[in-house]
Amino acid sequence: MKTEVESIVSRLRTLINEAKQSGSADADSRNIADFAAASFSVAQIPPAIAEYDVWRNHVGQLNPRHAGVHNRVIQFVKKVHRRLLSWYTRPLNHTFLALAAVVQRVFSSVEDLWRAGLEVDRRLDQLDGRLRAHTKNISEINLFLLARTAELEDSVAEMKRVSGTAMFSPIKAGRVEALHSANSQNGRPAEGLWVKNAVQGETTGQAWPGWSSTSERILDHAWALRKSNDVPIGSRILDLGCAESILAIELASAGYSVVGLDVRPYPLKHPSFEFMMGDLLTADIEVNSFDVVVALSTLERLAFGWHGDQNNLTKLELYVAKLYDILRPEGHLLITLPFGASTVTGNRRILGLHEIKRLFTGFETISAEYGLRLDEYTWISPVDAALAGNRAPQPVTLGAGAVAMLHLMKSAESNAR
Q1: Strand bridging mode 273-277 / 257-262
Q2: Cβ-count burial of 310 within 10 angstroms (0-12 exposed, 13-18 middle, 19+ buried)?
Q3: Which residues have C-beta within 8 Å of that of residue 178, sequence separation ≥ 6?
Q4: CA geometry: angle at 138 spanning 135 and 139, to 5°?
Q5: Contact 158/66 with Cβ under 8 angstroms?
Q6: Are strands 199-202 and 210-214 parallel, antiparallel or unpaired?
Q7: What whole-number distance in Å separates Cα of residue 347 and Cα of residue 398?
Q8: Lowest mean pLDDT among 82-91, 140-149, 243-252
């Protein structure tokens, strides 16, 4: 019995090692089949235990004898011997019973392992089927993507062919160069019109222009239009520094009577728009003549000789005083200024919070909003004044990293500053 149990355990260990080394579901199935068909099959264990029980019951069994005194004496002697021997064989009996119980548990465990192996084999078959289905789907998706990639490559090639011929052939190289300017002040007027777009492009000799940067105009232009919604239709509006924008034409188209003022020419026309060429300080503008004055990113340049005027910092206050004078009582000033750490760059003055308060002491503040430049392409608004006020100028262009958008009003009691 002990030899058979050891043989079974040894065979199980061999099968387990073979399964570990194989690593395939087919090999596992063969090992399970080999185990079931082995000469010492688990089915042999119950008969072996039954045979053990039979022989155990024969221990100390008396042989049948015929009637007679001598036979009774023999049987008595045997009974005495069996009783005496039972004291010595009792531990052996318990040992064999414990061994039988262990063997029975081993048999149950082996049977459970065998059934578990069959279940694992079944699940491996299911997983193999799923894997084959997924592999097929991935192959189909790969073929679809390859087809779409080929179509896109053909489309890109066609776009390049068209862009290099018919689509852009009317645009001459000189015209493209004239229209291109990352900062319009550094460029040349195209057809007499300077337009500083919020999204600024650049060309490198190719047909399609690239996106170079986004200016504060992405904020202040939309802000001015939003603020104009509260202005009554027919109001008289001055657009100071209008030459770089189409805001004056947009306001005129919206039903306002608009006057544009700039030191540069402005070729656009509208029935409700009048253009004046000149400087604000010397222009012939009557006092109390405008309901609204709009100045987007203009005031900071006027005192720096940028548009033909003299380089005099004190002229800022003169310009603000002139704006105050030409506004009617309770007239509104919509003005945007470069905002941040106070400094002077090559073409503008970046104003801090204290300077702004000093410049506009005669005005009542209706609202003050601040925008912040996150990167070359992104501006956000509104942000906290303290956050915007600490922003340093841009490292390369020296442009402002923040913008202040102020809605101010001239008091009703004052006619002059």
Answers
A1: parallel
A2: exposed
A3: 187, 188, 190
A4: 85
A5: no
A6: antiparallel
A7: 9
A8: 82-91
Please give the DSSP secondary-structure letter assigned to residue 232.
Answer: P
Edge-first strand order for the sheet with 273-277 is 273-277, 257-262, 236-240, 290-296, 327-339, 402-410, 363-375, 378-380
Query: Quick check: bond before 382 cis, omega within 30?
Result: yes
Residue 134 to residue 140: CA distance in whole angstroms: 10
Residue 21 DSSP label: H
- pLDDT value at residue 398: 65
Determine how many CB atoms are found less than 10 A away from the CB of residue 92. 11
Smallest CA-to-CA distance from 403 within 333, 332, 307, 335 is with 335
- Predicted confidence at residue 111, as pLDDT, reads 81
Map residue 29 onto helix, strand or coil. helix
Token code pair at residue 151: 């179509």
What is the tens place of the pLDDT at every residue in 313-334? Answer: 577 889 999 999 999 999 999 9
Tell me the Ramachandran region of residue 339: left when phi exceeds 0, alpha when psi lies from -120 to 50, beta otherwise. beta
User: How sure is the predictor about 273, in pLDDT bands with cuts at 50, 70 and 90?
Assistant: very high
Report the alpha-carbon distance of residue 151 to residue 240 in Å, rounded: 52
Question: What is the CB neighbour count within 10 angstroms for residue 210?
Answer: 9
Chain center to CA of 160: 31
Question: Which run of H or E residues covers position 157?
Answer: helix 69-163
pLDDT value for 279: 92
CA distance 213 to 372: 14
Backbone angles phi, psi at 149, to 5 degrees: -60, -40
Q: How far apart are CA 338 and CA 392, in angstroms?
A: 11
Amino acid at residue number 188: R
Question: Is 146's pLDDT higher than 70?
Answer: yes
pTM of the model: 0.53
pLDDT at position 414, please? 62
Tokens of 402: 């923040």
State mean pLDDT over 234-239.
97
> What distance, in Å, lies between the first and last C-alpha atoms of the chain?
120
Residue 37 carries which DSSP code? Answer: T
Contact 366, 378 (CB under 8 A): no
